[in-house]
Amino acid sequence: MSLRSAGIELHTFGFGVPGASPPPDLLEFTGSAGGVYRELRKLSDVARVFRGDVADLIRGIEIYNPDSGDRATDIALSGDGSFSGHLVLHEGRNRIQVRLDTSLQVLGEDGLAVDFVRRELRPWELLVELERLQGRNRDLFRLIQHEKSLRRSDFSKQVEFQIDP
């Protein structure tokens, strides 16, 4: 069953200079999944595309390469239903499958093929990647700090007591 037949739209976005010329494979995959590609100038533009909080409908996301057996890690689902993950690509053709499990008891699956060729990054591409990694590190740090504060809060609730005179 495809994502489209499962009632799931897959939208993709491009930011800045790279977003002005998306890869043809990405456009084809997005179109086959019933979604749209949008070039965005600022992150808040994403909210205009969606008509509600679709993340509540998604119970599970799996991204994998059936040829190599590699599975994506660090899959993150956003409130708007978009998701991201890290999947190892190998030189040559890579088939990537995306499987979604929804609360509507519908399993949607679709895929695309990506030809991966190693090359040196241009200076601006290195800068973009560095900024992406720094942002990811900031997000992880905030998440860790939030988890620690929740644990401290839970602990403080456990040690509360009252002394009657």
Q: If you had to describe this structure to a student in words, what would you say it looks like?
A:
It is a single chain. The chain has 165 residues and is an alpha+beta fold. It contains four helices and seven strands, in the order βααβαβββββα. It has a three-stranded antiparallel β-sheet with strand order 3-6-7, covered by helices on one side. A two-stranded parallel sheet has the order 1-2. The termini are far apart.
Mean pLDDT: 75
The dominant shape is extended
CATH architecture of the largest domain: Sandwich
Count of DSSP E strands? 7
Low-confidence stretches: none
Write out the strand line-up for the largest beta sheet, numbering strands in chain order.
3-6-7
Beta fraction:
25-35%
Largest sheet: 3 strands, antiparallel
The CATH topology of the largest domain turns out to be Immunoglobulin-like
- Highest CATH level, the class of the largest domain: Mainly Beta
Overall domain count: 2
Spatial gap, N to C terminus: 69 Å
Q: Helix count?
A: 4
> Which secondary-structure class do the elements indicate?
alpha+beta
Q: What is the share of helical residues?
A: 25-40%
Query: Radius of gyration over alpha carbons?
Result: 20 Å
List keywords for this structure.
165 residues; Immunoglobulin-like; 3-stranded antiparallel beta sheet; 32% helix
